Each structure stands twice: as C-alpha cells, then as structure tokens.
Amino acid sequence: MSALKNDLFIRALLKKEVERTPMWIMRQAGRYLPEYRATRKRAGNFLTLCKTPELACEVTMQPLDRYSLDAAILFSDILTIPDALGLGLQFSEGEGPSFKSPITNMADVDRITHIEPINELRYVTDAVSLIRKELDGRVPLIGFSGSPWTLATYMVEGKGSKEFHKVKGMLYREPETLEKLLEVLSNSVTNYLAAQIDAGAQAVMIFDTWGGVLSKECYLKYSLSPMKKIVQDLKKLSSAKDIPIVLFTKGGGNWLNEMAATGCDALGLDWTTEINVARAQVGDKVALQGNLDPCVLYGSDQVIRDEVKKVLDKFGKGSGHILNLGHGIQQYVDPAKVSVLVEAVKEFSPEYH
Prior knowledge:
The chain is α/β, with parallel strands linked by helices. It has 15 helices and nine strands.
C-alpha cells in the first residue's frame, strides 16, 4: 500500500512534531453533503449503503474530495456488531435504529455467546481495503467501533433511548447478565478492530456515545473497564501494537485521568470539556482530539474563525492536538461553512507549532 503523503494526523496522535494542527470531522461523510444524500438515495436505504463496500468507499471519499481534511474515516455504523450477532438491525425513517430481537436476560446473552460476528462483517473489511486503495496514501484511514457499553445500551433497550431504563435496570437488577454481555462485546470489538487494522485502517477510534449517562463508579466498571481491555488486547497483537487508538466518551470530561490510564494514545473531547483543563489534567500522557461545538457551524464565517482560534489558544503550543468537532456534524449545516472551518485551522494553527 502507498506511503502516506500527509501523516499529520498520525504524528499528532503520537505527540510528534507537526507543522500545523491536523483536523477531521466526526460524521464528515454524512447527510449535510448533497453528494452523500444522492448516493444514499441510489442505495435505497441506509443499511444497503453500509453493507455495499463500493458505496461505503464512495461516501468515505466524498468529504475528502470537497475539503482538504487530514484523515478519512470509514463509513459504517456503530451497530454493525449487534446486527452480526443476530439481533436483526432495522432502520425506520424518522425513528432511527431498532432491533427485532433485543437482549432481555441471560438466556439471550447465552444465545449470542458463541457467535463470531466478524464472519458476518466481511463487508466492512472489504470497504476498508477498497478505501485504502482509493486513498492511495493521500491521508490516513480511521477505523472505528462503538464501545461495549454503548452497543449494550442499544441491544438491551432495543433502540435509542433517553432514559436507559432497561439497560440501567439490568445493571442494578442482574449485573451478571450485563457483565457477560459486555464480555462478549469486548471480545467482538477487539476482533472487529483488529480485522479493520489488518485490512488497512491506520488508526482506530472507540465511540462511547453513552458512557456519560453513568455514575463514576458504574462508568469505570461497565464502560471504561471493557474499553481498557480492548486497548490492552489490541496492543498485544503484532499487527495492531503500533496503531494509534482514540477513546471518546461523550460526557466523559470528569474521567479523563482514568481514560488516559488505559494505554490509549488519544482522547476525544466533547464541547463541554475545556481543552486547556483537559491538557492540564492528562499532561503528555495522551493526545487530545476536539472539541468545537458542532453548532458553531451555524454561525457566521467570522464566528467560526473566532471559535477555531479559541480552541487553538486554549490547547496552546505544541503537538498532541487534533482539531475536531466535539461530536458529529449536524445534517442542517451548510457545506460551505466546513470550508471556512478547514481553512481557519490551516491559517491559524502553524503559529502553535
């Protein structure tokens, strides 16, 4: 495979010197882009888009053809593993994802314990290989997975939730069931990320979307502990030991020291965590990624430029920062505003290095 022509993102993750701050955008291949909407329409539905490697490659490349971003991220969905475990993923227009066969008890967990989801996820690794070939070394490719806790929330709730009463009820009522489910998912995520790395992913990210709904004690046990195991298991693999790993817990700003102690290379920050405070806490242990509020992109060009400058100022001088949004870009953002963001980072960041 081609050598990287732009390795700023990888160097920043490893806290090596860079000429400017690299950047990419969570959900950069998404509904805010008219070309993405056209491809999705052609696919017929979201799952077909995810499960067709050629289409996943096409939408992964779309934001890179439009903006000079410093990384590509595999186009996929965090619920691929539960789907491959036989829960029956379906997407309803306007209602989001749901499962036909959610996890309700230990018997349900036992039913999936011996399934190897990676056998059903060849379409993901095929997409990774295709994207790497298409990128031809332009920028690195990020692979990803949902965290075990986040996957468990969807698998137990059966769909998205605001109260998480089923999964939290399981946590307090029958913790051994949840612990067994998280063990199954930890092994699945490790194998899934390792397979993405073998197929060509040059960095991986674990999205812990719902860790922030837990108390600290429960977060450490049910969310962070499985992620730590994944990090440690990946670092033991000869193929994965040098691949940077990013952990992102939405709402996880109170637990940064514990997150940094997992052995990961970088932490993603949402916009509720001040990046200067985070840097003061974790020191040089890990790189930091973030943390512009996605809604900044609804502002004027000058507001966007000012907010970029604020994030750069707060992080300060030195490497170890990847500028990103604090969560996924929203579908109603004007694509022209992303150009303003990208150009502002390129204009302002060299003075910090």
